[in-house]
Amino acid sequence: MTPAIDLSFTDQELSRDAWAGELRTIGDAHGFYEEIGQEHTALFVKSGKTLIISFENLDHVYEKGNRLPWGFEFVQKQGWSILGMMAHGWTWYRDEDVFAFFNRLRDEGFFKQFDRVVFYGASMGGYAACAFSAACPGATVIAISPQASLDRDLCSWERRYHTVWSRDFTSQYGYAPEMSATAKYVYLFYDPLEPPDAMHAALFQNPNVIKYKCRFQGHRIASGFVKMGILKKVVTACVNGSLDRQSFYTLLRARRNFKRYMRELMQRINEKKNPMRVSIVASHVLAQGRAPVFRRQKNAADKLLRKRGMIPPGDIV
Question: What does the pLDDT read at residue 132?
Fold first, then answer.
């Protein structure tokens, strides 16, 4: 394993220009830093023979504490190389300059220096990971809550992302399910109870797609994985090719201690028809610590249970 490179930033507050300068310094020393047109930036740090290509929003990167693209510290600790793609807004990377950038990497044989290439992203980044994987056939894709396309004719039912409706999703690298057809594996994580996400996921029909249903997680599955402490484990297993349904859903048991998941679960329960279930779920959350909303829900459910002549969970007979 290649030793990790020290990518630590100064603790001082940096302006955006100074921050970009720091990124350029890292790129010049360990790979490259490139401004791709007016709306996108790439930072490449070479380390090991596995390359992780991540896609995210540049504003989110700047606002984070370490001001580095997703996974830099984690990827470095694994001895992997990383190409961090950053968008300056909600662009979905639909930019001719980005197309040209990946075409150039492909044509110059950039990807051939690595034994494994993995495209990673969530939501907008998930779309980009699927779409641009076409530049490197045989790559692995990890897509969390991705969109298949935001073309108005193809996905007229998608109403969430007005800001990108004017962009062209019909040209090169446009339709993510088709573009990801040459990948070795496409690991796709989504919530089947989130209608738009489920509809996008249904458009990924190729035999290389492996879908993992994350019920009651909503659209923000990636942030939920982070808070549950399982994102790095999931990514590592995808990279190594060891993730299967049993191992994934074993990891996902961590959701039982994740309040956002428990809130989503509680919202799906009809408290009048299933007060016992409400009381059981609320009791589980309250056993972990203070949770006023769940306390009120349990009190109301227990009151209804007693009214019906039933014994609430926890009551002494």
Answer: 98
- Per-residue model confidence (pLDDT) at position 317: 45
Return the structure tokens found at 288. Answer: 């972990």
Q: Is the separation of the CB atoms in 286 and 294 below 8 Å?
A: yes
Separation CA 278–CA 252 (nearest Å): 21
Q: Specify whether domain 16-255 bears CATH 1.20.120.1730.
A: no
pLDDT of 164 > 80? The answer is yes
Domain boundaries defined on the chain = 16-255, 269-307
